[in-house]
């Protein structure tokens, strides 16, 4: 039997995923048993009555840091003391920036564990000793790793067989090759006549796309991909 790809997500805001994972492509992938998403509340692994998961940084400084021991405890339980093999990703603004190539690599793992930080971030030992990769979704700072986790789940799910309606959609996409973007796409209406500031305009479609000449269209698109490359 084919294995269902499992995503374990460690977070202090489990409900943040409720609507996003219950719609569209992700819901379809779950319903078709292509993926399984298990959300784990890190507060369930806290070691005090306040359910705290963070503490002050050694050496001083602003904010709170997520504790190593709590994340370790959660991972140990979730991965059944190491019996379940999983590729562990920790999200951080200082990590290696996510690319389509990363998603292509990760789609091969049966089990992925995604650790979402909050506050000022996560104890560095989680990055050094527990995680396989430290990943950033871009060169900016968010308030938490939950949106990055949604991005990774969606980015991988759409690459899996049976998820997209038309598998050809994956063939000529932006970023399939590094730096190469898909050409701009058009649909009806062929001519659009907007009126802006009392001026009647015509917004048309590149004629070549209407020509029916497949070779010319392919060449045109090729040219456009290269233009977008810069
Ligand atoms: N003090 C940290 C930022 C903490 S933001 C720094 O200067 O690097 C809190 C959490 O949000 C992080 O632990 C991480 O899990 C998540 N996060 C913030 N920006 C992110 C990004 N660009 N990519 C991935 N995760 C991010």
Q: Main sheet, how many strands, which sense, barrel?
A: 5 strands, parallel
Cα(first) to Cα(last) distance is: 45 Å
Structural class estimated from helices and strands: alpha/beta
Ligand set: S-adenosyl-L-homocysteine
Trace the largest sheet across and list its strands.
2-1-6-5-7
Percentage of residues assigned to helices: 25-40%
The pLDDT mean sits at 95
Query: What is the helix tally?
Result: 6
CATH architecture of the largest domain: 3-Layer(aba) Sandwich
Count the strands?
Answer: 9
- The CATH class assignment of the largest domain is Alpha Beta
Description of the structure:
It is a single chain. The protein is an alpha/beta fold. The protein folds into two domains: about 5-155, SPOUT methyltransferase, trefoil knot domain (Alpha/beta knot, 3-Layer(aba) Sandwich), CATH 3.40.1280; about 175-230, Trp Operon Repressor, Chain A (Orthogonal Bundle), CATH 1.10.1270. Helix content is about 25%, strand content about 20%. The chain has helices at about 25-30, 70-80, 100-105, 125-130, 145-155, 215-230, and strands at about 5-10, 35-40, 55, 65, 85-95, 110-115, 135, 195, 200. Strands 2-1-6-5-7 form a five-stranded parallel sheet, with helices on both faces. A two-stranded antiparallel ribbon has the order 3-4. A hairpin with a 2-residue loop joins strand 8 and strand 9. It is elongated. The mean pLDDT is about 95. The site of S-adenosyl-L-homocysteine (SAH) has 19 residues, from strand 5.
